[in-house]
Write a structure and sequence with these properties.
By secondary structure, the chain is an alpha+beta fold. The protein has helices spanning 2-10, 13-18; strands at 22-27, 46-53, 62-66, 72-76, 80-86.
């Protein structure tokens, strides 16, 4: 009976709330002619969105992202598509 109680305990809303939610999106460089040529290799990869980067204006948003190979970079909101929360 103890094992069944342990399983039931794990399914409580509090335990589910403890899980880390990871937000991901697909990276699509806006301009393939830009100076960040190393970002082109990451075209169409699913990235982990680490957080937003504060800007002086509200015209667009910028985010810090991590690529599958561990590289980190910045991406504008229009370069990120198919957003998902996983976890």
């Amino acid at each position: 009976m103890a094992r069944e109680e342990g399983i039931a305990e794990m399914k409580t809303p509090e335990r589910i709330a403890d899980r880390r939610i990871v937000t991901t999106a697909v990276f699509r460089p806006y301009d393939m002619r830009n100076s960040e040529i190393d970002m082109h290799a990451h075209d169409n990869e699913r990235v982990e969105v680490l957080g937003s980067i504060p800007l002086d204006h509200e015209e667009f948003e910028m985010f810090r992202v991590r690529f599958p190979d561990g590289d980190e970079g910045q991406a504008f909101d229009d370069e990120l598509t198919d957003w998902k929360d996983e976890g």
